[in-house]
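Hey,

The postdoc asked me to send both predictions to you directly instead of through the lab channel. I've kept everything plain text so nothing gets mangled by the mail client. Protein one:
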Amino acid sequence: MFATSVFLAQYFQLARGATPTESGLMTIPMIVGQMGASILIGALISRFGRWKGFMVLGALLTLAGTILMTTLTYDTDFALVSVYMFTLGAGLGMVMQNLTLVVQNDTPVSQLGAASSNVNFFRSIAGTIGVTIMGSQLASRVTAHTADGFADFTPTTPDEVEALQGSLAAPCRTCTTCRPPSA
């Protein structure tokens, strides 16, 4: 959950050109899935007392949603991205709060505080590890894709030449594309 919250915003802003506000609004399908599943499955667990199947299903949906998110490109249809986000959100909603509910229901009252704090502690540690792993994967994939994308690139316009040189102020001095050769 933490990693997708961090990197979805970057995806929407950098790959899709959204503003920060639009980026936040574009994550609504994931939040709706998470909120809806959390409420619905929490009510079902409280009503019937069975939780194991919901937790396993939630873990599988989370895994499926995460795998689907790895297939995103800059031009993936937003409807498809929404389905992927909803799937991930529903899986997280089934697991996150209901895990706390299960721990609280299966723990003696005298140890309730310790059990709840352990759930939150390990959730925070796992979130940190998840953000770190996804960040390193993103960095290595962006580096590889950038190198592959520029491998066969030859600048043909003055803007492309200047952009590659890192300056838009001075004209290129190394080729004849930007300025004609001296006579």
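Protein two:
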Amino acid sequence: MTILTAGRFHMHLRESGSGEPVLLLHASSSSGRQWRDLQAALQDRYRVAAPDLLGYGGSSAWDPADELASRDETALLDEAVEHLGGGPVHLVGHSYGGLTALRLAMEGRVRLRSLTLYEPIAFWLLRLAGEAALYGEIRGIADTFRAAFARGDADAAARPYLDYWNGPGAWAAAPEGVRAMLRVTAAKTAREWAPAFEDDTPLAALAAGIAAPTLVLHGGVTNATTRRICGLLAGALPHAVSRAVPGAGHMGPVTHAAAVNAAIVRHIEAWSRGEDHRIQGSRAMPAGLAGGFPVQPRA
């Protein structure tokens, strides 16, 4: 267990193994423990770190009166990358963690060996793509969450949120421990909507800035919003492959961990000991990268 500090915040980091560094970023309302099976699968060959993002797990608690900026989260992740040797790293992110990984990559904050994104919540891409219906759908979920939290009703915030990502009735069926966790972390989750909507980075800029080989994953039965975002990213990034995980939804890394983890391990292994793509530039994607699932390399 490692504690990293940047400014007024600290971050709890679970790390194990040795070799090329792998950094795993979890979804909202979760913690680095989300990746424990993937960490176990990688740690014999890689140095794997799974931080608790701010407001989760053992990292700094979130004060609703405090105004978190995206740079607070990324500053701690800069420390994590330096702790791992400064890169290049294999970077993996899911949902809000996927958004954070995408931000690190597009800002050039980390030298990448490879990038894996499972349904990153880059909702501004829907707006820029003219997807008014999809953008309005997810904006409604976000506005409901933030309004309910603002009036002090964490249950009314979390109920439609959990149902949207996990299917109708998910809140009603959830154990009380899950509901309690959602209440405790609601302040941080409420703040995480903003960077998902307020960015204006176009796909062309993402394509120009991210040269690393990228695996874009989505659930086979996921929401249309994140499926469309994955399609936009896979179609724009110059060295991306796209894959659907059969039967999975947005929480595939938890509900379908074996299939998701296997795909991530194959992607990381395919790009181990390759060039530093941020410096060396592009490289052709290898044929047959994925094995069991269909892969669509960008032409």
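Summary for protein two, as requested: Residues 275-299 have pLDDT under 50 and may be disordered.

Thanks,
C.
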